[in-house]
Input
Amino acid sequence: IAPSAPSTLVARLVMGDPDGDALAGEIRVLPSFTLLDVIPRLSEGCRLIFTPDGVPGEGILYGEPIGSPPTLADGDAALGCGDGDPDFELARGTCDEAVAAGFFDVYLELDGEAPFPICVRRRGHPDSAIELAIGRFGFGRVDLIPAEGPRIRVAFGASRLPPWIDLTSLSRPGGFILEIEASDGATPPVGDAAIFEASTETRLRLRRVRHIGSP
Output
């Protein structure tokens, strides 16, 4: 996904069915928000936390320790942001997967290809679990995608994508996730996702190419 004009972003994508069947599916745009690496700014680290339930000083922060993977952590566990007693625990995967596996911790190292889901819950309150997704991470930041659902949904059929998507309903500037899911109606849907940023752009053009890298 890249700019092509002051008001337009372009997404180049490959879509097809091995048997030549027509595809139908949905295009979605989801919001994300950014946490900055607290390590270079420890004096303000406790003001850079994400508060899952809105309680000041109780939440999740992000750091990129030298020699270790990028990490999400409870603010109290990492920096003593409140009373020193950790408030939240985290696990990789959807909340159903995380609860079934039974492994939560106050620290969660990030690796692999984004986006991927994580589960956050208040310690001692298993019914408080909320699901997020990790977008882009590294280079001083992590993008979190709230589970509030897509801001934009556009259906398509007969293997015909809409030529462009209107972005004016999005709060910009900001980070977003573009998701595309498709099926031939006989096999399970498959999809892909990409992270992008929008500032002044008002639409996203969808351009099918034979392979990624085509002009």
